[in-house]
Design a protein that fits this description.
The complex is a heterodimer of chains A (about 280) and B (about 240).
Chain A: E1 3-14, E2 17-28, E3 32-36, H1 43-50, E4 58-63, E5 66-67, H2 74-77, E6 80-83, H3 95-105, H4 111-119, H5 135-147, E7 153-157, H6 165-180, E8 184-189, H7 192-198, E9 201-206, E10 209-214, H8 216-223, E11 227-232, E12 237-241, H9 244-255, E13 259-264, H10 269-277
Parallel strand pairs in A: 3-8, 3-9, 6-7, 7-8
Antiparallel strand pairs in A: 1-2, 1-4, 4-5, 9-10, 11-12, 11-13
Chain B: H1 5-19, H2 23-41, H3 47-50, H4 52-75, H5 78-84, H6 89-115, H7 122-146, H8 150-174, H9 177-183, H10 187-199, H11 204-232
Helix pairs in contact in B: 1-6, 2-4, 2-6, 4-6, 4-7, 4-8, 6-7, 7-8, 7-10, 7-11, 8-9, 10-11
Classes of the chains: A alpha/beta (about 280), B mainly alpha (about 240).
The structure holds adenosine-5'-diphosphate and magnesium ion.
Membrane topology (chain B): Multi-pass membrane protein
GO molecular function, one term (chain B): ABC-type transporter activity
Protein name (chain B): ABC transporter permease
Chain lengths: ~280, ~240
């Protein structure tokens, strides 16, 4: 089995209105796949289809090499972890009690709770009721719950949406560690920086269709305008091409000691998204 | 379909911890006991008033506690997370009903003790209570599933509370044969008349139609709850 997820010509319509239209992609084991799109583009719908919460209208969806409907069996369900778009935590219960329930449902030793709380940096707060936590802490509890049973494949629906940079960083650190340990991650996000930082592959979703799919590296090269930006010590900035004239100019500035900084003009994923869709990611 | 006692116990334990911190539910448990105390002070000859404390306990605790626990799981999207875990629909349904059933039973017994209702035939009476528990926990599940929020359960549930507990008063109020006839098919009405028959030292022959009525209600409400669960469990 080469791919953890294979989606082919997927269509999903709600009351004849298409939410996803002709979507195809594959995700290899060990990859972090970014599903990037603005609000309403179909990210949550995709996550729900991939986790067998919603049935697609047409096309084929395979998870672990089998039709996605096979996920409805508890043994298969144990292989995936899900962080949905709303926390789904029991507010009145403590962090520990929330996780204890899921330890028992997944048949995981309760010792794992301390381990996973350590990972998301919440061990000191384990006796705190969820309703007293900040949004960022709640999201880290949700992540802890999603990885409690060490799933092979993790689905994250906008995991850091509306979080402060510190909480965002903490979550990214956990995700990188999980990925290094072999977890495949499907990450839906409208945060292009997040996709750039974490993903091996990104798909740009616009109105239910994938308009671009590649590694962040290749996307930047492909959509870059092949120029270099130079700042001189006298405060002016100059743009030169990647050709002989450009190289001569740079050499001259360096020889004359005028050069201050030099940057290639690679677009960010956000720039590319706007270029392709005429629409910003927010 | 898998079946694991460990998972069912986990859900019950979670609900129990949650319940102790939920003042709304604690009030729903205490209210019927208060009514029982009040009714025991009023002397009445109306036979349907006799079983009023029991019916109140069944409706207020059985149906409403279950409805608000179910609606809250849906409102907070925790039901979705449970469904995404290895717990099956059946395990979740049983887990969520057992605790309400036990609490309701305790409140029913408490109401009987407080109001001093005389229970002549423990065997048949237990069957009647068991059937009533099934009916009202299922009705509670249905109310919880069709309400979008916990607050809505009171609005959706109120007509049911009034019809089921004050049915006989309504029928005398409207003085219409059709309404009186319909109300005589309510399980609470059948519970009351069976209790009166038992107290008049009647046996199975006197209450068999009442038992059949309640049995049909129990089967019907479980089927309806299961059907609505299939349709509504994943709603926002
Ligand atoms: N249950 C539903 N019924 C009808 N339309 C829906 C439903 N869920 C999502 N949609 C529609 O599908 C589109 C994609 O929604 P969604 O997947 O939630 O987007 P995102 O998560 O990217 O914000 C939106 O136009 C939304 O209104
Ligand atoms: Mg979404």
């Amino acid at each position: 089995m080469k791919y953890q997820i294979e989606v082919n010509q997927l269509t999903k319509a709600f009351a004849n209105k298409p939410a996803l239209n002709g979507v195809s992609f594959q995700i290899k084991r060990g990859e972090i796949f970014g599903f990037l799109g603005p609000s309403g583009s179909g990210k949550t719908t995709m996550v729900k289809i991939l986790t067998a919460q919603l049935l697609h209208t047409s096309g084929s969806v395979k998870v672990f090499g089998n039709d996605v409907r096979n996920l409805q069996n508890p043994e298969q369900m144990k292989r995936i972890g899900i962080l949905t778009d709303n926390s789904g935590l029991y507010d009145r219960l403590t962090i520990y009690d929330n996780l204890e329930l899921f330890c028992k449902l997944y048949n995981v030793d309760v010792k794992r709770i301390e381990e996973v709380l350590e990972e998301v940096n919440l061990l000191q707060d384990k006796k705190t009721a969820v309703k007293q936590l900040s949004k960022g802490m709640k999201q880290r509890v949700t992540l802890a719950r999603a990885i409690l049973h060490k799933p092979e494949l993790l689905f994250l629906d906008e995991p850091t949406s509306a979080l402060d940079p510190t909480n965002k960083q903490q979550i990214h650190t956990v995700l990188r560690k999980l990925n290094e340990a072999g977890t495949t991650i499907f990450l839906s996000t409208h945060d292009m920086q997040e996709a750039e930082d974490l993903c091996n592959q990104v798909a740009f979703l616009h109105n239910g269709t994938i308009v671009e799919l590649d590694t962040p590296q290749s996307l930047r090269v492909k959509h870059g305008d092949s120029t270099i930006n130079i700042r001189l010590k006298n405060g002016t900035s100059v743009t030169v091409g990647l050709d002989e004239a450009g190289s001569n100019a740079i050499r001259d500035y360096m020889n004359n000691g005028e050069l201050l900084t030099i940057h290639s003009n690679e677009p960010t994923l956000g720039d590319i998204f706007i270029k392709l869709t005429g629409r910003a990611l927010q | 379909m898998t079946f694991s006692m460990r998972r069912i116990r986990a859900i019950i334990t979670k609900d129990w911890k949650d319940l102790l911190k939920n003042s709304y539910i604690l009030v729903s448990i205490l209210l019927p006991l208060g009514f029982a105390a009040m009714l025991s002070r009023m002397s009445t000859d109306d036979s349907s008033m006799l079983s009023m404390p029991i019916n109140l306990a069944l409706v207020m605790t059985g149906a409403f506690v279950q409805a608000s626990m179910m609606a809250e799981e849906k409102e907070r999207s925790t039901l979705r997370v449970l469904l995404l875990s290895p717990a099956s629909t059946l395990e979740i349904m049983i887990g969520k009903s057992v605790l309400s059933a036990i609490i309701t039973l305790i409140v029913v017994i408490g109401s009987i003790l407080i109001s001093g209702i005389n229970i002549p035939e423990l065997f048949y009476f237990s069957i009647m209570i068991l059937l009533s528990l099934i009916i009202f926990i299922s009705l509670g599940t249905i109310i919880g599933l069709i309400s979008r929020t916990v607050m809505e359960t009171s609005i959706v549930g109120l007509p049911i509370l009034i019809i089921f507990t004050y049915g006989s008063m309504l029928s005398s109020m409207f003085n219409s044969p059709i309404i009186a006839e319909s109300i005589s098919y309510l399980p609470t009405e059948n519970f009351s008349s069976a209790l009166v028959s038992l107290q008049g030292s009647g046996g199975f022959a006197e209450i068999k139609w009442n038992l059949l009525n309640m049995l049909l209600w129990a089967i019907g409400s479980v089927i309806l709850a299961k059907f609505i669960y299939g349709k509504r469990r994943l709603d926002k």
